[in-house]
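Schema walk-through. Below, the input block comes first and the output block second. Nothing else is stored per chain. Lengths vary across the set, and this one has 285 residues.
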Amino acid sequence: METRWQAVELVTVTADDGTVLHGALFEPEAKQRGTPALLLTGGTGAEFYSGFLPRLAAHLAEAGYPVLVFNRRDHGAEFGFHGFREAVDDLALGVEALAERGVDQVVLAGHSYGTLCAAHYAVRHRDPRVVGEIWYAPLRDLREATVRVLGSLERYREWCRQAEAAVARGQGEALVVLPAISPFGRPLLHQQAVFLDKRGPGTAAVMPGHTDTLGGLPVLVVRHGDDFAEGALLPGELAGSVTYHLLPPAHPRLPPAVAHGFLGLEREVARITVGWLKDRGARAV
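--- output ---
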């Protein structure tokens, strides 16, 4: 099949603290000024070069949109070593990388845990270059997702007590191993302090309840009906300027981890995304 995306550029940026971040920029065949770009940020354990987002990016570039798939500092196996707010703030570097390439309008999109990062970037930064957000398989609350991973609320509370005790002893950098979040995943090391920061009772990794909190940005939500329910953002839980697109359950039903990653459905998700962008006036011209 002939594609309409021209090339993939490896993007490397350096944060103020010296942290080096990487991404891949998918360029359409014909570059046009005024076309918004998409900045895609992944979920727990994700890398810019694997999984759902780069496959989605190729389809969106075929449709004429520049797309940067971008690693935060908590990408891949680094997830349990960096706090939530640091990861959120890294997205500014992705927006700036696009701006340096002539992009003046960015649609910020996240997958899974990346949706929390995208939402809180809007809350914290009020970046005028960001004109909308897209949340694929969004989480409502990382704590609830952690309860699912650990198997019970009682076990989650015990993990939190142990983490709090470790931090109180000055051992916040001590490591624990969180079970794999899906049958296809791998266990993830977490520093005790980072476990509390991202998954503990006082975490900020919770979805806002209204798009006004995001500065009134329009939001597209895409979720599969066979996806995990625990911790997910369900229809009706976000008020404001939101379009919620629920893909119907499959027959037979997909394993939740497959539905969560939209495996084999990337082209359909791209079609939904492009339709929403066009409805918002964000056409690839």
